[in-house]
Amino acid sequence: MEKRWHKVWPKGVPRTIHVDKPFTEYIRDWALKTPDAVAIDFYGREISYAELDRYADRFAQSLIDHGLGKGDRVGIYMQNCPQFVISFFGAIRAGGVLVSLNPMFRHLELKPIIEKTGTSIIIAQYDLYPELKKVKTSLSIGTVILTRLADFAPNKPALPFPSEPLKEGEKYTDTVDFLALLKGTAPKPVCRTDDMDQDLALLQLTGGTTGVPKAAMISVKSFSTAVIGARTWFGLSPSDVNLGLAPFFHIMGLQVTMSPALASGGRLVIISRFTPEVTARAIADQGCTVWVAAPTMLTALVNMPGIDAYDFSTLRVIVTGGAPISLKLQQEIKKLFPNVMLGEGYGLTEALAQGGVTTPLGRWKQGFAGIPHINDMKIVDLETGLKEIPPNQKGEIIIKGPTVMKGYWNQPEETQQAIRDGWLYTGDIGLMDEEGYLKIVDRMKELILCSGFNVYPSDVENIMSKHPAILEVAVVGVPDDYRGESPKAFVALKENFRGKATEEEIINWCRENMASYKRPREVAIRESLPKSGAGKILKRELT
Prior knowledge:
five-stranded parallel sheet; 543 residues; seven-stranded mixed sheet; 14 helices
């Protein structure tokens, strides 16, 4: 059936994506075709496709040897590094289901996720283990495998290597060493995916439309379709050098950066942390051609002193999302990267990043995120959610197609509410023009979009409520020139803490107990918080 967006469909891109194998097996294909080609470059340490394939098989077999059963959940708690890639592809080959754990999370944030998903094996960085150890004994975690970023670093890094706060010789007796595990396991082909439609690849954490933590069930087929969809849409090939800077624990980094780069036989240049100088050097020195970047990264880079001294002529595609790109920033990007085609996008965990909309390369339209790619999409009336509305009118965005999740893990009622007659109701408000370009008008009522990350006020409020001085707390989003939005917390104190607890002390407590991107930059202490007659806090009255 002809869709309105087919009028602007990019040449050479198929309208339907077919996959006949799990995404993990594309690496195996490249290991046979081009075994010596570089798959990963990590600060100058190169890993070939043949090596990566063997590492993934070794790790898969080691997980099976440690009792991993089909469908068991495997957590990865680390920054971008080769070990993340090996763990991810190895876990899926072994029949495991990935649970990405944000490396910025503290123990109070880790516990409900591990508990909810029943994660039994976790691969983590040594320097992050102290946070995990605080909750390990109270959870049914069977095995913890530890690695250092330096385990795969070259002797002389080509770029400034991130420091690790843990002493080299420090050991934890209740854990397994990642490198020892690889060395002690024989490589033999492993792929325990039996049914791509039914076997899960991910339990990806999301707040959905309510802010209540949920785990979206993403099948191997859905993830594979999205990966190959990204590969075809952006024309990725073995000649591409992909900058692996978008966080792999996030669906954008995992599904639009890491996996398509390797499924295309290209080079993945992995950087663990974003700094403008290291990013600029990586692009210029490595000749990067493709970069998936948050708008905040682009803003920081174009404003970096001395940025004009770098040669960015090799970069052909920049993909961004999470917040609209202003015309001013777009102009600055085009000036800095003269050969770049800029692509924006809109996606969500429940339908994967590639399952929303993305810009047809060369046809960027200011204020619009792009056109539907893999899935079908409609804008429906807000009253019933059943009537498709005409172009350029606001309504709820709904999505249907092969990358939509199977549902929320162990939450049938929430699944039924989110997926109706096969359509995923996003809770986002948008409009679609005559060419099928989507404009995001509003996000979920209380969602705060901070530096490309979804910040759910209820999540921040639940953590802050554990502070001994806080009686009540309400979190709202406030404009932030750099981050787009930032959380601001309004708190009422318990009587015995009034005049004692300070806003600065509460901010410092938040710094110690939650990820930096979602902790409030501002805290306002009030005598009381405004409430409705039913006792509900009236956030609209908080200023």
